[in-house]
Amino acid sequence: RKEVEQDPGPFNVPEGATVAFNCTYSNSASQSFFWYRQDCRKEPKLLMSVYSSGNEDGRFTAQLNRASQYISLLIRDSKLSDSATYLCVVGSTGGGNKLTFGTGTQLKVEL
Amino acid sequence: DVKVTQSSRYLVKRTGEKVFLECVQDMDHENMFWYRQDPGLGLRLIYFSYDVKMKEKGDIPEGYSVSREKKERFSLILESASTNQTSMYLCASSLILAGGNEQFFGPGTRLTVL
Q1: Are B104 and B111 spatial neighbours (Cβ–Cβ below 8 Å)?
Q2: Which of A47, A92, B46, B63 could form a disulfide with B34 if both were Cys (CB 3.0 to 4.6 A apart)?
Q3: Contact flag A31-B107 (C-beta cutoff 8 Å)
């Protein structure tokens, strides 16, 4: 079983739609959680950290369910510029501050 | 702004050549990482370093070595390049924080081994 699992998509949605991505992780001792965004042929960049209480940044809402080992990302009012691959990322408890990356979910926002 | 730079965006090498990939960060981060990214496999950690002259194996270290002589610089070495090392190589850096911290990535080096 992969340490971090995501549906690869692609999710094709019309502009203005609300879309949700889910992710599960296997290590119950994981302590930090992130969503990264990666544009085609570019490096990954942090979109937002994910906290147990849930957090929101504009049109983006991230939630963490530690009991189910599940992370979600909700994007409201999708824009064409939201088209990218979204990576679910989990911080390990071992040395070196390693992060484990999911393989990503591809989003395509269309007119 | 954190800046992580990599020596080349594109590189073409021949099988058996020794390849050096250089990474430099300007934010005084303790941690530095080398990943490779392949379609369907995502980012896989090759090596990382949490201090000068310190290195730790990641998930796929075979065929690679690293060097960290200065805090800001982390080099990835392919001793004898093979075609299965054709990939996108990404360097990242971060501050030390228990449980993991945001990593900042360089633009990547797309390596082709012929």
Answers
A1: no
A2: B46
A3: no
**Distance from C-alpha of A25 to C-alpha of A98, rounded to nearest angstrom:** 15
- Asked if the C-beta of A95 comes within 8 angstroms of chain B's C-beta atoms, the answer is yes
Binning chain A into helix, strand and coil, the percentages to the nearest 5 are 5, 50, 40
Give the count of beta carbons closer than 10 Å to the beta carbon of residue A46: 15
B95 CB-contact burial (10 Å; exposed 0-12 / middle 13-18 / buried 19+): middle
- Phi then psi dihedrals of residue A80, to 5 deg: -55, -35
Q: Quick check: bond before B107 cis, omega within 30?
A: no
Contact list in A for residue B35 (CB cut-off 8 A) is 101
Contact criterion met (CB < 8 Å) for A102 and B42: yes
Task: Tell whether the model's pLDDT for residue A66 goes beyond 90.
Answer: yes
Q: B89, B96, B90: which is closest to B71 by C-alpha?
A: B96
Please give the helix or strand (H or E) that residue A4 lies within, else none: strand A4-6
Interface touch B50/A98, C-beta < 8 Å: no
CB interface of A with B, residues 14-43, below 8 Å = 30-32, 34, 42-43
> Residue B105 is encoded by which pair of tokens?
């990535």
pLDDT class of A93 with cuts at 50, 70, 90: low
Distance from the Cα of B102 to chain A's closest Cα (Å) equals 7
The rounded mean pLDDT for chain B is 94
Give the B window 31-60 contacts with A, CB below 8 Å. Answer: 31, 33, 35, 40-43, 45, 48, 50, 56, 58
